[in-house]
Amino acid sequence: MTNGPEDDFDPVWSAFSPAWSPDGNWIAFVAERIGEYHIYKIDINGNNLQRLTNQGKFNLTPAWFPDGQSIAFGSGGVGSGIYVMDADGKHPRQIIKLLHGVGPSLNPAWSPDGKQIACVGNDGDGNDIYIMDTDGQNARRISLLGLWSDNPAWSRDGKWIAYDAYEAEIANPPDNPNAVRHIFIVSVKGGEPRQITQHPVSNSSPAWVPGSFFSVSPTVDTQTTLWGRLKQVERMTQ
User: Fold this and answer.
1) SS3 of 96-116
2) Is the pLDDT of residue 117 over 70?
3) Domain boundaries, the chain
4) How far apart are CA 180 and CA 196, in angstroms?
5) In CATH, what number does 14-237 get?
6) Cβ atoms within 10 Å, residue 42
């Protein structure tokens, strides 16, 4: 899909953080070139590469608005916060500044109805997951404090947030070589987050599965397993 622009002889050109447009025709992603990170988009055939951001040097984690007309992203450095731009890169505007004035706000995720946004903010005790209105008002933390949480993802019904974080029993997780990350879910209305992975390896970047995608549909109460094992159980019960 990506191999750098044909007229670009910069040997450093890496791409990451892909995000599908709602209509499935475009992929937005981040590319690094000579220490600068910008948002690009490309069509599903690997054509029509377009650079969308021009401000700053650290533009990360693109997230499409549910109607596909705009893209949110996190920007670090001067003017850090969450920005929104049109899908063609025009009219960028900041909607969320630094949360509590400490650390950048990154990894935006739109609610399915487009009325709220979840993102990562640093309040001095590590990264945490916040939910707020799309104008940055009414921000509230929903992750457990001090676990260095990241990568929020809304459930399709808008009732849950999944994210990854260090397990609660480990002290000083960023500096602890024994610390591993797990997937948590929490109700958008609040309450105690629930750790849903238990195996002793790191887990990150959760994504919700559409209910109609699998004939055996996972739920928030489903135990962790391999998809092949789910299919095996299905065959045994038929």
Assistant:
1) ECCHHHCCCCEEEEECCCCCE
2) yes
3) 14-237
4) 14
5) 2.120.10.30
6) 19
